[in-house]
Design goal:
The complex is a heterodimer of chains A (113) and B (116).
Chain A lengths: L8 E5 L4 E6 L8 E7 L6 E6 L4 E2 L4 E4 L5 E6 L8 E8 L15 E6 L1
Parallel strand pairs in A: 1-9
Antiparallel strand pairs in A: 2-7, 3-4, 3-8, 5-6, 6-7, 8-9
Chain B lengths: L3 E4 L2 E4 L5 E7 L4 E9 L6 E7 L5 E2 L8 E7 L2 E6 L8 E9 L7 E2 L3 E5 L1
Parallel strand pairs in B: 2-11
Antiparallel strand pairs in B: 1-3, 3-8, 4-5, 4-9, 5-6, 7-8, 9-10, 9-11
The chains are: A mainly beta (113), B mainly beta (116).
Chain lengths: 113, 116
């Protein structure tokens, strides 16, 4: 799996958009970008994933650069409940060997009232 | 969305005892389940991968005789920490990937194990 780089921490004011960056400069053509988040003392929660095109769902938007070497997760209106560690993961589908997701250190997002 | 139930959420045990953690997929059949361990302020580390009806595959450094994994059905996997010691105290999380569910993994809520 391609390695990802994320800032260790970020703050965001409540009600504002939270933009979480992720660098994955070694991403391969068949690797997807996944975002998960983990609220304290809970299991990770799936947010969104994409390959090339930008994606949007009820939780967030995912913007992938044209060269696919970086992406940004956007929480349009952050709430206090969005405070969590956000993980950006890239992997190819149905890889041989471990089909797990490799979790790096993620970005600890703190939403401030 | 798909639901993965993990039980218990918290367990405290004496050193030397065994603890079993259950992971159930409630509304889908999980062909593959993964067990992770997470120490405070650290990321998730994969311990093992289990496929229904076959032996689990353990990551390097994880003792298979200490962390027994059983995936006897398409909806249940169990992790048994045998002869637990204080250094086994950690947050254990399971996840499942189901048939027809694409590449997304669904995670349980985790089990906080404290060994006294």
């Amino acid at each position: 799996d391609a390695k990802t780089t994320q800032p260790p921490s970020m703050d965001c004011a409540e009600g504002r958009a939270a933009n979480l960056p992720c660098n994955h400069s070694t991403i391969s053509g068949n690797e997807y970008v996944y975002w998960y988040r983990q609220i304290h003392s809970q299991g990770p929660q799936y947010i969104i994933h994409g390959l090339k095109n930008n994606e949007t769902n009820e939780m967030a938007s995912l913007i992938i650069t044209e060269d696919r070497k970086s992406s940004t997760l956007i929480l349009p209106h952050a709430t206090l409940r969005d405070t969590a560690v956000y993980y950006c993961i890239v992997r190819a589908p149905r890889q041989t060997g471990a089909n797990n997701l490799f979790f790096g250190t993620g970005t600890r997002l703190t939403v401030i009232p | 969305g798909a639901v993965v139930s993990q039980h218990p959420s918290r367990v405290i045990c004496k050193s030397g005892t065994s603890v079993k953690i259950e992971c159930r997929s409630l509304d889908f059949q999980a062909t593959t389940m993964f067990w992770y361990r997470q120490f405070p302020k650290q990321s998730l580390m994969l311990m093992a991968t289990s496929n229904e009806g076959s032996k689990a595959t353990y990551e390097q450094g994880v003792e298979k005789d200490k962390f027994l994994i059983n995936h006897a059905s398409l909806t249940l996997s169990t992790l048994t920490v045998t002869s637990a010691h204080p250094e086994d105290s950690s947050f254990y999380i399971c996840s499942a990937r189901g048939q027809g569910r694409g590449e997304k993994l669904f995670f349980g809520s985790g089990t906080q194990l404290s060994v006294l």
